[in-house]
């Protein structure tokens, strides 16, 4: 039996603590907040998108950074392993096949997931220490031997698992302070970027579309001659763009947009051809263009486009071919300039973190410090939205828990 200290009571830390305790270890879980799973509580809009129902081999196409590192953890504890775990503990869930196969709690309450994990911690005699922050780890002869708390207390242990998260949603406790501690002990920190975050747009008129949402939009751009695109729903905001499609795109352009302007090309009707749009514009010659097009796109969006083109009051029979082509161009290939992101505080996930080259992907043990294990968002791994990041947290936590 080993004495295992787990730092961080999020999904990865709780899963690591549960698994380690089931392997006949004495486990202490240290959480800086007054409750466990604070960030987990707000995921999926509070509904808890706990994983995705795709085949596990399909997950790797959804990993943005360092997908190969996750082979061992994903195949050791798959999405179906996770769902079986929760099902066996009484959780009812639903699979939204129409929504990228996302898995949510049937009740729509993330508290059910947290309660199951908390009960399992209790059933396996995990000691939970609340409202204490680890401010350093104790390293002796290149091996970890304990942690130091913010009240000056030293807790000794044989193994330490760090699951403190990244820098996104800092109000939940994941403020990135553990990065500095690990760097002090010779780990390498890959630069931090916001991922799954809204994008800011240079064009000022975009604020006039605040609140307008459009489904099944295709957004594309080129970075170093490579085309990047995403399809999904978008929402206009006073600062620019958000919504699932935009959030996913942000994870692929976040490193580049920090120092460069990026031209976005937006097709608001990717499944409708230019010829079809032309016919709809012309189908009622005596009607205003907006009346003809509003079954395809929101009226407020059309009003703004036509205002920009000085065509607001035009009827279809008054429209020149050139003006028609301009309208279609705005609908099928609107050009907007992305000049940044909304930053780490509004990002759902942190991109960057402790280098995967310094972690054994088969055990999650540090290659720098013996008996130290790192899991979840703390590491330089991130994925698209859709339950993939939570699966990373659970899978890496589970792998660390069985490896201590």
UniProtKB/TrEMBL annotation:
<feature type="domain" description="RsdA/BaiN/AoA(So)-like Rossmann fold-like">
    <location>
        <begin position="3"/>
        <end position="401"/>
    </location>
</feature>
<keyword id="KW-0285">Flavoprotein</keyword>
<keyword id="KW-0274">FAD</keyword>
<dbReference type="Pfam" id="PF22780">
    <property type="entry name" value="HI0933_like_1st"/>
</dbReference>
<dbReference type="InterPro" id="IPR036188">
    <property type="entry name" value="FAD/NAD-bd_sf"/>
</dbReference>
<protein>
    <submittedName>
        <fullName>Flavoprotein protein</fullName>
    </submittedName>
</protein>
<feature type="domain" description="RsdA/BaiN/AoA(So)-like insert">
    <location>
        <begin position="193"/>
        <end position="349"/>
    </location>
</feature>
<dbReference type="InterPro" id="IPR055178">
    <property type="entry name" value="RsdA/BaiN/AoA(So)-like_dom"/>
</dbReference>
<dbReference type="Pfam" id="PF03486">
    <property type="entry name" value="HI0933_like"/>
</dbReference>
<dbReference type="InterPro" id="IPR023166">
    <property type="entry name" value="BaiN-like_dom_sf"/>
</dbReference>
<dbReference type="InterPro" id="IPR057661">
    <property type="entry name" value="RsdA/BaiN/AoA(So)_Rossmann"/>
</dbReference>
<dbReference type="InterPro" id="IPR004792">
    <property type="entry name" value="BaiN-like"/>
</dbReference>
């Amino acid at each position: 039996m080993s004495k295992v200290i787990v730092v961080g009571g999020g999904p990865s830390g709780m899963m690591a603590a549960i698994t380690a305790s089931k392997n006949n270890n004495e486990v202490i879980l240290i959480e800086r907040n007054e409750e466990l799973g604070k960030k987990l509580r707000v995921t999926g809009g509070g509904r808890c998108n706990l994983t995705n129902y795709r085949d596990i081999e399909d997950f790797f196409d959804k990993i943005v950074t360092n997908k190969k590192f996750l082979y061992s953890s994903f195949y050791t504890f798959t999405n179906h392993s996770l769902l079986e775990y929760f099902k066996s503990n009484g959780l009812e869930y639903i699979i939204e096949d129409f929504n990228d196969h996302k898995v949510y709690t049937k009740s729509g309450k993330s508290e059910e997931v947290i309660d199951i994990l908390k009960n399992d911690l209790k059933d396996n005699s995990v000691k939970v220490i609340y409202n204490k922050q680890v401010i350093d780890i104790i390293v002796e002869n290149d091996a970890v031997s304990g942690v130091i708390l913010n009240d000056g207390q030293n807790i000794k242990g044989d193994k330490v698992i760090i699951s403190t998260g990244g820098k996104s949603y800092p109000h939940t406790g994941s403020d990135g302070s553990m990065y500095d501690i690990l760097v002090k002990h010779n780990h390498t920190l890959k630069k931090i970027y916001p991922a799954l975050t809204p994008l800011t747009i240079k064009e000022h008129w975009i604020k006039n579309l605040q609140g307008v949402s459009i489904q099944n939009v295709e957004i594309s751009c080129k970075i170093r001659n490579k085309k990047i695109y995403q399809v999904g729903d978008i929402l206009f905001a006073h600062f620019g763009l958000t919504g699932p499609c935009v959030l996913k795109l942000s994870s692929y352009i976040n490193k580049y947009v920090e120092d460069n302007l990026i031209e976005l090309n937006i097709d608001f009707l990717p499944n409708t051809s230019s010829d079809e749009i032309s016919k709809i514009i012309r189908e009622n010659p005596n009607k205003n263009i907006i009346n003809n097009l509003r079954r395809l796109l929101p009226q407020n969006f059309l009003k703004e486009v036509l205002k920009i083109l000085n065509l607001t009051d035009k009827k279809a029979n008054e429209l020149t071919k050139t003006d028609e082509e301009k309208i279609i161009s705005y609908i099928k290939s609107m050009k907007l300039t992305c000049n940044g992101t909304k930053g780490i505080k509004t990002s759902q996930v942190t991109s960057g973190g402790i280098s995967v080259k310094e972690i054994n992907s088969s055990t999650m043990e540090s290659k720098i410090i013996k008996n130290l294990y790192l899991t979840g968002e703390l590491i330089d791994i991130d994925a698209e939205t859709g339950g993939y990041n939570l699966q990373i947290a659970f899978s890496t936590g589970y792998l660390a828990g069985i490896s201590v």
